[in-house]
């Protein structure tokens, strides 16, 4: 019997696992997909919010600000890309100024530092030359930032794993029954028993909660469509640019990414299907709203579009607590935006609940630091040369758009909880994430996965399950 | 640092022809840098025939056509390195490249020929809504998988876009045992060669639906189906025309984009119409001593024309190394396409420096029947050539005579137009 089973290897579950690994504990993460970071955590704005959005006094507000404060240090410990580039909320008409002021006031109450309302247009233009000329004022939040959500999630999980937490993939929890001293989880890969369950199942968290509790919750998948633009467009704005909700509607954001792309999105459409990550024509058309705040958006530079699902709980609040009518079952539910920002704080909060309940001792071998992936593209000429001399695979470019080498693919495959699919490779190395969208590197990446993991070519998948890329051999049906 | 007179970026048809022409012109110090494991570029995966009709007056397959050039490169003992990626070119013509064996290294060139080719437009650039399952390939990726590695990417195939690679793959996949259900083209005309429509679709009973596009993609893990719809003259889907197709594969053949990230980073100025460098009559870019040819300059329809153009670039680069930049009494004539002519290569022409005959290549932006190509020296029409049909999928050319241009010292602009009958 495990001490703790965490359902879901998204950023919340992985953050909980990593914080839990500070203690001596027999714990396991069950994930229905083939990899970490496959649901809400992989498709979002990749933003570290400052913390002025959430209602004063809410858990969301508290954990947002805490997560924001943890991120600079955490990104160093885990060696992942993070940039405190700041954010602006753009106000386009005098009538909405009180709303901007309200955001400022709420932020101050939430404990957000260095907030400032700027009305000096020359200064605004200097900060962001591509903001619309209609801008009346902006709320500046220098503590906001951008992060690679894949690397954050992957690094948290990997660090948890190297500190002793088990991970089981392709393992979907089907039912949860109370047993003596804990819970029995029936899964697609057999039964597991545990003293405590952490429900970090994203859009599915209501399903598991409602299996064990009479006090029902309801989570709506709120779909958001996004555009990702070429790196040529990445400097169009320097900060995350939010729209101030106004008579023009809620608006969409425009932000640089840590890898130098530009993201535009998201829309917000409530749907029923918890797997409904298909973009829609209406959604993609709506993204043109971003041009209300940012001018000359180079929409011809779109290299891909995608949709993510926010796990919106009816009360728009994080639910993080042990259930009163189901002791031993800890919810980590309703983790929608600012969930990515809050995840380090969520991890700490849940781990503290578990430490207290299970009376856990400190794990003396815990090592919270890791060395991240080598990203050749960020190294100097001398560093590159030295690396290739040591390991020639770093001299062999596989993805020419993102300049990713065979050496980086080998790292991604052979690291703890390594990549096994094309998308797994992409999230770890960016091979296939560039402007040709994997046109050139797909056959080469497949070849390397085949060679390194012994997976037959016809069994290599894009993203696990039935997502095989090839169906057979030439003329095999003739 | 190693030094070469001419460094050629890319060992595909353009790079090979440029190298051979430079050697024929007397250059000895030439290096070809090729990223793949063999010379020949994309020709290696084009195992169909139809190459070389203009150049060799016979029909060759892609690898056969490439072999004609690689054999000559070997015979001439022109140096080349394989599996080598150029990662940077400085305006001072220092080429930085990397490979497994030599690591990261710099090469000083006196002249550089850009011959990196192009890439395929991806689904993302089209904004087709829906899921992102496995089973959506660019036509060229599928071509590589089938022709070079022997794998079937799918059983039931829909092809979006009627570019030549898509048409060729419709036939290829049919021959390998797949069912190609339809080729859809958003434009009211095909983007490919007429002969490919006949030989790759008509001969196999594969329907071509013009003015149609994919509006939905179904299947979360592997593609399960798509929805086609007719589009209006602005390219917008027309409600009520939706047709569902079940398929496990969607191939995209929706355009090629010259790969000029290296060129742009070194300061080469691009033509927004072609996405290739702006060049003068020597196929030289705005960066002195840097030449461009083949699909990195503008996307061609036939490889024969790539070879011809690249040979000119190779000769010009060789002359540049021998003689230095020649700046004769600087009369640059601007060449431009209007009235249906989308662009011209080159963009400027210097009558003093040009060869006796200068080929100007261009494409038209629509299908034109029974029309004329008009060439104007300033406002004076000097050519009025009848064309039965011109289409965006086929490259056009005219020739300019040095003799004639020298007779008109007052010309500052040459315009090429489509003129309706």
TrEMBL record, chain A:
Organism of derivation? Lacrimispora celerecrescens
Under the heading PANTHER family, the entry gives: GLYCEROL 3-PHOSPHATE OXIDASE (PTHR42720:SF1), GLYCEROL-3-PHOSPHATE DEHYDROGENASE (PTHR42720)
**Protein name per its UniProtKB record:** FAD-dependent oxidoreductase
Domain BFD-like [2Fe-2S]-binding: where? 397-450
Task: Specify the FAD dependent oxidoreductase domain's residue ranges.
Answer: 3-352
Q: CDD domains attached here?
A: GlpA-like_Fer2_BFD-like (cd19946)
Automatic annotation (TrEMBL), chain B:
Q: Which Gene3D superfamilies match?
A: FAD/NAD(P)-binding domain (3.50.50.60)
Record's keyword terms, sorted: Oxidoreductase
Q: Which GO terms describe its molecular function?
A: oxidoreductase activity
Signal peptide start and end residues: none
An example Pfam family from this entry, by short name, is: Pyr_redox_2
InterPro entries in the record, alphabetically?
FAD/NAD-bd_sf, FAD/NAD-binding_dom, Metab_Enz_Cyan_OpOx_G3PDH
- Determine the domain of life of the protein's source: Bacteria
Domain spans labelled FAD/NAD(P)-binding: 4-304
Q: What is this protein called?
A: Pyridine nucleotide-disulfide oxidoreductase
Q: What is the lineage of its organism?
A: Bacteria, Bacillati, Bacillota, Clostridia, Lachnospirales
